[in-house]
User: Which sequence fits this backbone?
């Protein structure tokens, strides 16, 4: 187990923020977990793809880069296959692997940055699908109890960009692998308007999971900045839930306000729309900006400090609050 000190985390976060890890190691073998648990009693931080974190200061304690790899088929029946996937695998590569084998269920989640271990953590979702629909169970190492625990789907308490790993188990466990149940017989989800429009644009007449992934990749590439070219962490805020009563009032004032249904009494309003209505789409603040193609994304124009991105997010929050009376919630984990 090789531990380094004072390592720049810039290559390990998609915002491209230059903060230092006090101690840093790459975890390549689950056997190292027990070793860390007995030898390190201070703070432990885990980084996967680093695509959902904002580093606002140097990181004390040990930062563990998850490099666990492996995809294994553990079960199969007439309709499904079950894959046990190590948490350090790159999410998009898993999506492509499933598509190559014609296993359906996660194709709408193509091109989401990050690792497999981060997928259950924030219940990644896009274009009408959330990963919870494909997760059978999640296994993690419990730091204090020094043992593995396995949570079934219900025990993960998945919600919109949410799970038990962001609450009761936050900082307490290291997700080691996730078992996915994929479908041998595809049912296509093209409910999200942008997908059907894109498929039409691409001239697709016969649906396939590959065609859906291609459509998703095309849409994402046109709206979301590539972190390799411009630092960002995808959606910075969650889409807020508002009561139907409040929504109806807003609609009188803003007839074009979009919404997604949640239940009988609440709807979700796209935060990107709210931010754009505030005139902040493309807004520049020093080294940071609100992305000019999708206002839900904050970007690092080059040399930004995490604090500057945080300040921009505060400005966005306050402006939306003043104009609409809606409080946005950050989706990105702030360190
Ligand atoms: N909109 C605007 N202006 C903007 C951005 C969006 O008016 O600058 C409007 C769009 O016109 C559309 C609506 O808002 O009517 C929704 O926009 P979009 O389809 O781009 O999706 P989103 O709600 O902004 C969510 C997820 C994305 C996911 C897309 C597609 C959250 C926080 N974000 O964004 O997830 O890719 O839907 O399903 O739920 C991520 O989590 O990092 C992420 C990118």
Assistant:
């Amino acid at each position: 187990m090789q531990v380094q000190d004072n390592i720049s985390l810039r290559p390990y976060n998609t915002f491209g923020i230059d903060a230092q890890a006090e101690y840093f190691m790459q975890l390549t073998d689950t056997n190292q977990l027990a070793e860390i648990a007995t030898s390190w009693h201070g703070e432990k931080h885990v980084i996967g793809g680093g695509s959902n974190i904002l580093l606002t200061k140097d990181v004390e304690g040990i930062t563990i880069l998850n490099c666990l790899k492996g995809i294994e088929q553990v079960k199969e029946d007439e309709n499904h296959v079950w894959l046990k996937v190590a948490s350090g695998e790159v999410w998009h590569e898993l999506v492509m692997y499933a598509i190559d084998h014609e296993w359906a269920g996660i194709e709408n989640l193509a091109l989401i940055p990050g690792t497999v271990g981060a997928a259950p953590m924030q219940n990644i979702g896009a274009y009408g699908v959330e990963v919870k629909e494909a997760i059978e169970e999640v296994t993690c190492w419990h730091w204090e109890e020094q043992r593995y625990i396995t949570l079934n789907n219900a025990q993960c308490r998945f919600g919109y960009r949410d799970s038990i790993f962001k609450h009761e188990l936050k900082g307490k466990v290291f997700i080691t692998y996730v078992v996915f149940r994929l479908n041998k017989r595809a049912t296509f989800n093209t409910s999200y308007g942008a997908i059907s429009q894109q498929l039409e644009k691409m001239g697709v007449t016969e649906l396939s999971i590959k065609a859906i992934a291609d459509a998703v990749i095309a849409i994402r590439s046109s709206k979301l900045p590539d972190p390799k070219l411009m630092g960002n962490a995808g959606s910075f805020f969650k889409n807020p839930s508002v009561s139907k009563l409040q929504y109806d009032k807003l609609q009188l004032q803003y007839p074009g306000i979009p919404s997604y249904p949640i239940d009988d009494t609440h709807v979700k309003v796209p935060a990107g729309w709210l931010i754009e209505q505030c005139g902040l789409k493309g807004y520049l603040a020093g080294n940071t900006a609100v992305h000019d193609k999708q206002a839900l994304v904050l970007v690092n124009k080059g040399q930004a400090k995490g604090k500057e991105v945080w300040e921009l997010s505060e400005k966005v929050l306050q402006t939306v609050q003043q104009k609409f009376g809606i409080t946005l919630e950050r989706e990105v984990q702030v360190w």
Q: What stands out?
A: The helical segments are 31-39, 91-100, 118-121, 193-201, 209-223, 244-253, 271-277, 306-324. The pocket of EPU is lined by residues 126-127, 192, 194, 223-224, 234-235, 238-239, 258, 270, 272-273, 276, 281, 294-296, 331 (CB under 6 Å). The two ends are 25 Å apart (CA to CA). The mean pLDDT is 96.
